[in-house]
Amino acid sequence: MNETPLYDRPEIYFAAAAFLLAVGIFGLIRRRTLIGMLISGELIFSAATLNVMAFNRFRAPDPAVGQIFVLFIMGLAAAEVGIALSIIIAVYRNYRSVKTKELSELNG
Asked: What does pTM read for this prediction?
């Protein structure tokens, strides 16, 4: 009767990260607007962050390395959101839409 609690099992964290990754990829494929794609990309970043933290907690000898790496991922995600939102606003000002099918003039 020495069962470990759920928060001490790495499989739970890996399954949650896989679920977030699957939802993010599904959202990138199915979303028709740029904002929806941006949110799906953030879900993928969250999955990567959760995976790094789980590996850090259960496998790494030094916990600070994983936490610093997660802070780097969070900073990268914040920069990505800022740049993507500015591009989306510029596209909306020019084309009056954020739907990807209506942006056919952007094709090379």
From this structure: 0.82
